[in-house]
Amino acid sequence: MDKYLKRQSIRDNVRMQRRMLTKKQQYQYAKMLALRALKDKRIQRANKLAIFLSFDNEINTNLLINMLWKETKIVYLPVLHPFAPGHLLFMQYNPNTPLVINRLNIYEPQLDVTTLLLLNQLDICFIPLVAFDNYGNRLGMGGGFYDRMLYSWYTGEFTFCPIGLAYDCQYQTEAIPTEKWDIPLPEVITPSCHWHWNIALK
Ligand SMILES: Nc1nc2c(c(=O)[nH]1)N(C=O)[C@@H](CNc1ccc(C(=O)N[C@@H](CCC(=O)O)C(=O)O)cc1)CN2
Ligand SMILES: Nc1ncnc2c1ncn2[C@@H]1O[C@H](COP(=O)(O)OP(=O)(O)OP(=O)(O)O)[C@@H](O)[C@H]1O
User: Fold this and answer.
1) Quick one: which residues bind ATP (predicted)?
2) Virtual torsion, Cα 140, 143, 148, 150, nearest 10 deg
């Protein structure tokens, strides 16, 4: 099968699997994920963390966000860049941040330059994904947003720690066919596992 079609069929498959989880499973898995994340020493020590608001049946991050707030961490969300297509900005998120729906139908903080994150200050970046494999290869929604963001980590420009968040069912036993712009993840946390890979930086 053509690589593009293979990647698309993995996306379709996993998105369907995620959709089939019951409400109870969704809640239990989200809770397990949050507790597992908070067991990690670097996450405990981190001060500034970027995360995302779940959409399209992604594992729910609200519990984790609430726990981070309770630990007085500073939390950021991705915002579609207003004039650099394919790029993300990160803006601070607290319980009274006004949210708007963006053109991809995802909630994001209203643009406010005063709460913009400088990536050199970021400690942890939690990353959404559709599928991952045994090498840390990541398949996203197909916008290339996080590949562009991860590039700055891959080249050593920034030293934040990228961590994918996913359900266990998003793991692919067969290697995901990669494209030259794909950046593998050094870590993924699922409800039942914390995966680590040694990724050689550029
Ligand atoms: N929660 C969350 N926020 C995120 C991301 C994400 O994956 N998850 N993104 C990560 O990059 C960015 C948004 N990326 C997106 C890229 C493409 C589509 C999109 O085209 N959706 C279509 C078709 C999807 C398909 O069938 O492949 C749709 O939903 O109809 C949506 C979001 C920024 N924020
Ligand atoms: N670093 C980059 N520079 C320029 N273009 C890029 C870069 N990374 C990805 N792209 C472009 O983005 C498009 C989507 O890439 P891909 O299908 O790998 O996205 P994805 O990883 O699934 O999505 P996302 O990262 O948004 O979750 C591709 O057409 C590719 O050309």
Assistant:
1) 7-11, 138-146
2) -20
Amino acid at site 148:
R
| Domain spans, the chain | 3-196
Model confidence pLDDT, tens digit, residues 59-102: 999 999 999 999 999 999 999 999 999 999 999 999 999 999 99
Q: Report residues whose beta carbon is within 6 angstroms of any ligand 1 atom.
A: 11, 52-56, 58, 78, 88, 104, 106, 128, 140-143, 145-146
What CA–CA distances, in Å, run from 37 to 24, 29, 91?
20, 12, 21
Q: What is the whole-number distance in angstroms between the Cα of residue 100 and the centre of ligand 1?
A: 16
Residue 60 CA to ligand 1 center (angstroms) comes to 15
The CATH number of the structural domain formed by 3-196 is 3.40.50.10420
